[in-house]
């Protein structure tokens, strides 16, 4: 019975993610989920995603500006995903969230990671998106508003189907 409950929750989570993340704040592209795990037993979830590409309307912008917009989208998506999953699944205590971007050679590189906890709720009144993300438990590195790759040993997504 526990397996069926977990499958039902996982199905709900996938449908909700697809629905809520069809378009972004700065990109009209849908978010691409790479991996989702849900454990009703431990009351934890994990989700990896591929960050959204820069909107096609922004292609004429200089590269630094496009990269800053994309980085803003990643932080916004991470906070929104955290909020949505905890709101939808009140029994969860923590969520491991990781965002990857395409890198040379068909690999993906990690740009944001964090195990966020329900108790670590950060008020929306914190004006900086980056500060809200840090206070929520996300780790990332930014240089001039652009996310840098984080050290990561695994290469779980070396190709796409």
SSE pattern, N- to C-terminal: HEEHEEHEE
Largest sheet: 4 strands, mixed
**How many strand units?**
6
What is the CATH architecture assignment? Roll
- Rg: 16 Å
In CATH's first tier, which class applies?
A: Alpha Beta
At CATH level 3, the topology is Diaminopimelate Epimerase, Chain A, domain 1
- Specify the helix fraction band: 25-40%
What class, by secondary structure content?
A: alpha+beta
Large-scale geometry: globular
Number of domains: 1
Low-confidence stretches: none
Question: What does it look like?
Answer:
With 161 residues, the protein is of the alpha+beta class. It has one domain (2-148): Diaminopimelate Epimerase, Chain A, domain 1. Helix content is 33%, strand content 25%. It is built from 3 helices and 6 strands. A 4-stranded mixed beta sheet has the order 1-2-3-4. Strands 5-6 form a two-stranded antiparallel ribbon. A hairpin with a 4-residue loop joins strand 1 (32-39) and strand 2. The radius of gyration is 16 Å and the shape is globular.
Write the layout of secondary structure elements.
Blueprint: H1 2-20, E1 32-39, E2 44-50, H2 63-88, E3 94-102, E4 108-117, H3 129-136, E5 141-143, E6 146-148
Parallel strand pairs: 2-3
Antiparallel strand pairs: 1-2, 3-4, 5-6
Helix pairs in contact: 1-2, 2-3
Describe, in short, the structure shown.
The chain has 161 residues and is of the alpha+beta class.
Notable characteristics:
four-stranded mixed sheet; Diaminopimelate Epimerase, Chain A, domain 1; 3 helices; globular; alpha+beta; 25% strand; 161 residues; two-stranded antiparallel sheet
């Amino acid at each position: 019975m526990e397996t069926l409950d977990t499958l039902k929750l996982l199905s709900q989570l996938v449908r909700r993610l697809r629905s809520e993340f069809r378009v972004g704040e700065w990109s009209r592209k849908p978010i691409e989920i790479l991996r989702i795990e849900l454990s009703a037993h431990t009351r934890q979830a994990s989700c990896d995603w591929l960050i959204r590409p820069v909107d096609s309307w922004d292609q004429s912008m200089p590269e630094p500006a496009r990269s800053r917009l994309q980085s803003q989208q990643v932080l916004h998506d991470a906070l929104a995903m955290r909020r949505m999953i905890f709101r939808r699944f009140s029994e969860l205590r923590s969520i491991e969230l990781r965002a990857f971007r395409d890198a040379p050679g068909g690999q993906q590189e990690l740009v944001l990671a964090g195990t966020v906890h329900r108790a670590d709720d950060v008020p929306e009144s914190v004006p900086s998106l980056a500060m809200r993300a840090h206070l929520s438990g996300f780790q990332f590195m930014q240089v001039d508003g652009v996310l840098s790759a984080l050290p990561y040993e695994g290469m779980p997504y070396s190709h796409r189907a």
